[in-house]
Amino acid sequence: MGSVFGGAALSGIGFTVSLLVISLAFDSSSDLGRQATLGVLVAMVLATVLGWLIFKVAARRWGEETADLPMTLDPPVDPEVDHIRGPEDARLTLVEFVDFECEYCAHATGSWEDLHGRFGDDLRYVVRHLPHHPHGPLAARAAEAAAKQKMFWPWLDFVFTRQDALEREDLIGYAAELSLDVEAFIEDLDSEEVAARVQRDIASAEASGAKMTPTFFVDGCRMVGSYDARSLTEMLESSRRGGRTQAAKA
């Protein structure tokens, strides 16, 4: 916000000159003089609002909103607790915080096949929950209920293609479609154990500086900026070459 007001203050120099020109060109008591002055004042307000919007969108797009937050994954990946795709002892680790109702997560998570094709068994992929959409908390608990039946990854792939239907009855229907034990699924869906498991990931997100989804960590370091396949590949390649993993700014 300080940057916005600073920019607005500098822009105000130009508007001040405009007011000076108006005072020289028109009689301040004339209709033209009053209209010109009003126009400049309105433009000042609109410029400030537009500047705020541009800064806000830019900060969200390039990750500047989270730049001052923690950069290290906390706690580190634990094979006994975390959901891991790929070898547990892989050289590279990619962690993603997701919300099952987040359309950007669905696109980003779909990059796994491309990344796995490039890095093979050098890469392990970990998913943690950060539900913040209306159906996110229930969908996260449903994923953990599926995980109790060793079906976390099939569930993730399946549900990310059905983001427009995440009501309770929808999720129970998906459990049946995936041939889960539906009674056990419902019991786990409502259990304190599953709720605590989701809350663990939410606490991890807060401790790690993850404020939105998707948020990625490469070898324990939070990415800042773009999360497209190219950016993820560059970060992973740098780490595989032995380069120091850093926050990647687009």
Describe this structure in words.
Residues 60-194 form the Thioredoxin domain. The chain crosses the membrane at residues 7-26, 38-55. One of its GO terms (molecular function) is antiporter activity. This protein is an alpha+beta fold. It has two domains: 2-61; 83-240, Glutaredoxin (3-Layer(aba) Sandwich). The chain contains ten helices and five strands. It has helices at residues 2-25, 31-61, 103-109, 112-119, 136-147, 152-159, 168-177, 182-189, 192-208, 229-240, and strands at 83-85, 92-98, 123-129, 215-218, 221-222. The chain has a five-stranded mixed beta sheet, with helices on both faces. Helix 5 (136-147) runs parallel beside helix 7. Mean pLDDT is 85; it is low at 244-250.
Question: What key phrases describe this protein's structure?
Answer:
single chain; 250 residues; alpha+beta; Glutaredoxin; 2 domains; five-stranded mixed sheet; 9% strand; elongated; disordered C terminus
Oligomer: single chain
Cα(first) to Cα(last) distance is: 22 Å
The residue ranges in which pLDDT falls below 50 over 5 or more consecutive positions are 244-250
What's the gyration radius in Å?
A: 25 Å
State the helix count.
10
Tell me the series of helices and strands, N- to C-terminal: HHEEHHEHHHHHEEH
Indicate how many domains the architecture comprises: 2
Give a count of the beta strands, DSSP E runs of length 2 or more: 5
CATH topology value of the largest domain: Glutaredoxin
| Shape type | elongated
The helix-and-strand class reads alpha+beta
Please report the first level of CATH classification, the CATH class of the largest domain.
Alpha Beta
The CATH architecture term of the largest domain is 3-Layer(aba) Sandwich
Strand content: 5-15%
